[in-house]
Amino acid sequence: MEKRDLELIQKYIFNDPELKHCMEEHEEFERQLAEMNRRLYLTPEEEVERKRIQKLKLAGRDRIEAILAKYRSQSARG
């Protein structure tokens, strides 16, 4: 994430439960993927799970971006 995104997250995370939830979920997906990536071999089922987690992580990232865009537009207006 960009520095300004991280700054916005730090500014609003404690007042925005949805942003907080999305960030916690994003970090958990990151942790799970890092664990899977450390393995030399994944079973076919684990590979499917890895792909599923990647898709969920991307969807969560899109949601975080939408929330941040809302805050950016608010700060630009006022």
Structure characterization notes:
The chain is an all-alpha fold. The chain has one domain (3-77). The chain has 3 helices and no strands. The chain has helices at 3-12, 17-38, 44-77. Helix 2 (17-38) runs antiparallel to helix 3.
List keywords for this structure.
78 residues; mainly alpha; 3 helices; 0% strand
Question: What is the CA-based Rg, rounded?
Answer: 15 Å
Helix content: over 70%
User: Sheet with the most strands?
Assistant: none
Task: Count up the domains.
Answer: 1
Work out the helix count. 3
Order of helices and strands: HHH
Envelope shape: elongated
**What percent of residues are in strands?**
under 5%
* Whole-number mean pLDDT: 94
Rounded to the nearest angstrom, the distance between the terminal CA atoms is 25 Å
Q: Please give the number of β-strands.
A: 0
Helix vs. strand class: mainly alpha
**Low-confidence parts lasting 5 or more residues at pLDDT below 50?**
none
